[in-house]
């Protein structure tokens, strides 16, 4: 019996460089299986593929061990945020209000 395979992409952007890898996996493979098959963890040793957040075309995948892939999917590996965007906006608004108060 012939095994059906599909091609997907795995992308990761580190601070200093990005990588886009084409990976061929068996049809019905999980996101986690494609990540491991890509070898991206060998190119970026700081990546912990068991813990990092991943998504497909910008949508977070909650359970990469069970989410099955479709041909042409792009798996994105996300880095942790350095700062909470809501907190940054709150601090910026407070700083602007303080500057406005000083100028009046």
From TrEMBL:
It holds the Pfam family Ub-RnfH. It comes from the Bacteria. Belongs to the UPF0125 (RnfH) family. HAMAP family: UPF0125_RnfH. NCBIfam families: PRK01777.1. This is UPF0125 protein KJF94_00340. It comes from Pseudomonas hormoni.
